[in-house]
Design goal:
This protein has about 450 residues and is mainly alpha-helical. It contains 18 helices and no strands. It has one domain: MFS general substrate transporter like domains (Growth Hormone, Chain: A, Up-down Bundle). Helix content is about 75%, strand content about 0%. The N terminus and C terminus are likely disordered.
Length: about 450
């Protein structure tokens, strides 16, 4: 009898140890990444809310398209030197660099992300009108600074609204959807602005950019309101900044943008000097082609990143950039130059989804997602601020071909850094559950 009485208890003890291995427990909302919800479930956004965010991202992309390479075309037509153009773009990049983390902190602090986003859109439209009406150095420099500051706030607002709608559990799919609608908006706006530049003048590009403020604000007002997420006590900033994976990712992103930021504006200036009449049309085509590629590939990239991991897509993105720089240095046929931009689309589709996903992976359970985004954004700003001046100096001193080869050399360094140092950040898959297994504390809320 004593032996028979003890055996069931031993079996119960063994069963209690093995039970968690065989039964996948429901994931609480704070671990699954979803924001707190009255029913204890992650948010389930309505189709109308999702479409509202889609249209907002579409029109924001329209507004932002008027800047970038069109600035180089416009200022070149106004008899600006490449050094002056590069200086304005570099100062804008430096301001963007400094404002990345404060911009994210402002969005975290603000009670309404919509209000902050609306103010940022008004500032960007004002910058566009300043370019159009006063193409003198002090005014253009002020417009560049205003645009940089507003963009540093607008980006975190879009991420905050997206997270509020779907939670961290659905942010990967939402990022792919964001990239698709942003690329469609960029492509349509680039085609329209290229046509305006051809039939009217390069100045008309910035007038159209300012006019896009109205539909952007309408979409923002009618989009789905995000669910406010609970605040957590985050880890110390010093501990977050010592994470090797985050610092490696930031360094790789810096090298990428140091090579990439000047390529298309430099090509725009080259095309303007070769054929001023067709320059805006060709630049518009150079923007449209990669946006079509991004629209087609981004959801596929977001889906397969969960299967294959993040590193394969990062390697593809970084390998495409030096090839593109080499082709820009050697190809002179405008039609072939437009075809080369397919590589830019592949790169944008991969990085546009992978970088925020990797930041989310690396900050899981820390409560420092926005800070980490600011760290990576700061690195991006460093590279992007150096690139135009570097490209301008190489062009004025040695010619455009040497400038493209120099930028391609920087891109090779970035590829080697990804190949040798960047870790895989995808959460390990738990074979006993349908979702990725967490690597640490409950997931943070941005």
């Amino acid at each position: 009898m004593p032996v028979r009485a003890l055996r069931p208890r031993e079996d119960e003890r063994r069963g209690s140890k093995e039970e968690p291995r065989r039964v996948a427990e429901p994931t609480p909302p704070e671990q699954s990444g979803g924001p707190p919800h009255p029913g204890g479930e992650p948010p389930h956004p309505s189709a109308a809310s999702q479409r509202g965010l889609d249209w907002f991202i579409f029109f924001v992309a329209d507004v932002q398209t008027g800047f970038g390479p069109f600035i180089a075309v416009y200022l070149t037509s106004q008899k600006w030197t490449q050094v002056d153009i590069g200086l304005v773009l570099s100062i804008g990049g430096i301001v963007s660099l400094i404002a990345q983390m404060p911009g994210g902190a402002l969005v975290d602090w603000a009670k309404s992300e919509r209000l902050v986003a609306g103010v940022a859109l008004v500032a960007i439209a004002t910058s566009a009108m300043t370019y159009a009406l006063m193409p003198v150095f002090p005014a253009v420099l002020s417009a560049a600074v205003m645009h940089a500051l507003a963009s540093c706030v607008l980006g975190p607002c879009i991420v905050a609204i997206s997270l509020g709608l779907v939670g961290h559990a659905g942010i990967g799919a939402r990022l792919g959807r964001n990239a698709r609608f942003a690329s469609i908006g960029n492509g349509i706006a680039a085609a329209a602005m290229g046509a305006c530049g051809y039939f009217f003048s390069p100045r008309a590009v910035f007038v159209v950019t300012a006019a896009m403020l109205i539909p952007s604000l309408v979409a923002l007002a009618h989009g789905g309101a995000p669910v406010r997420q609970a605040k957590k006590i985050p880890v110390r900033v010093s501990k977050m900044l010592r994470r090797p994976g985050l610092l490696i990712l930031a360094g790789c992103v810096m090298l990428f943008h140091m090579a990439n930021a000047a390529m298309l504006p430099l090509m725009g200036s080259v095309l303007t000097m070769r054929s001023a009449e067709w320059a805006t049309v060709l630049i518009g085509a150079c923007i449209v082609v990669p946006q079509l590629v991004v629209a087609a590939l981004s959801p596929w990239v977001g889906h397969h990143a969960q299967i294959w991991g993040r590193r394969p897509f990062m390697l593809v993105a970084f390998a495409s950039l030096p090839i593109r720089g080499l082709l820009f240095a050697t190809v002179t046929d405008p039609a072939l130059l437009v075809a080369v931009q397919v590589l830019d689309g592949i790169t944008a589709a991969c990085l546009g989804v992978m970088v925020p996903l990797m930041v989310a992976d690396l900050t899981r359970g820390t409560g420092r997602f926005n800070l980490a985004q600011g760290v990576v954004g700061t690195a991006m700003g460093i590279g992007a601020s150096i690139s135009p001046t570097l490209g301008g100096l190489l062009t004025d001193g040695y010619g455009s071909s040497v400038a493209f080869l120099g930028l391609a050399g920087v891109a090779v360094l970035g590829f080697l850094a990804v190949w040798m140092f960047l870790p895989e950040t995808r959460p390990r898959l738990d074979p006993g559950a349908a979702r990725p297994r967490e690597r640490g504390d409950p997931e943070q809320h941005a």
